[in-house]
# Entry
Amino acid sequence: MSGVRKPPALDLPEGQWALFLDIDGTLLEHASHPNAVFVSEELRGLLGNIEQRLGGALAFITGRSVLAVDRLFQPLKLRAAGLYGLEHRLTPDGPVGVADTPADIAALADAIEAELDDGQVYIERKGPILAIHTRAAPHLLARATDLVERALAQLPQGYRVIPGNAGVELMPLEAVKGGAIRRFMAIPPFAGRRPVFLGDDTSDENGFEAINEARGISVRVKPRGPTAATYALENVAETIAWLETNFEVSRVS
Ligand SMILES: O=P(O)(O)OC[C@H]1O[C@H](O[C@H]2O[C@H](CO)[C@@H](O)[C@H](O)[C@H]2O)[C@H](O)[C@@H](O)[C@@H]1O
Ligand SMILES: [Mg+2]
# Structure
């Protein structure tokens, strides 16, 4: 595991922690399609219990939209930053704040879809963000990446391309997980607490940097190379077990 250490046992009372969680690849095993992931009752119960024990200081920090997250975890609703921080819901039942869309990329999505006319590539349209999923057609990843990089030239400045997990995403520069974490850390019930963030992907690295600046605990799940995270866990199962152990929550039967 790239020599990164396992995270330590948490040594402060639970009221002093703030917990930020990536979803795909961290809490959920990857599936062939974004809508094919499985959320167990145990996981819903665990997250609900942790949210209560932390006095609400738990938020999802994800590339999915908040609406997509709510559909997956229903009836559980948590604080969340969606679309890498372009959306945020600061209280579980509050409104979803949405950042401006710098450009309409729907037409771009159509063009890329037509170019990759293969039936195996799924283009996820997330408003200002485009995710090209090549999990079912790995041989098309390089072509998809090339197309998206060339599409950058057609957009106003302020977009970037980042590798996804079995795909590639095009997004505004301000879509960064570190910004989302800092926003939560400035308000109750997060402010003044020591933050923990668990994530598994390139897009989580910026979040790890924000956590490290705040002297928190950054944990990369299944690191595949260099990471800014201080600690690492092997996989989803180990992540869930670590959360259960460290937040002293018993499994929901
Ligand atoms: O920030 P995350 O919560 O980890 O979300 C990242 C992206 O996750 C989803 O795509 C990934 O997971 C899918 C389900 O396992 C998989 O089919 C796909 O190949 C992965 O890239 C989601 O669809 C994206 O919108 C998120 O940005
Ligand atoms: Mg992830």
Summary: The longest helix spans residues 41-53. Helices lie at 41-53, 66-73, 106-115, 141-151, 177-185, 205-213, 236-246. The mean pLDDT is 93. The chain has seven helices and twelve strands.
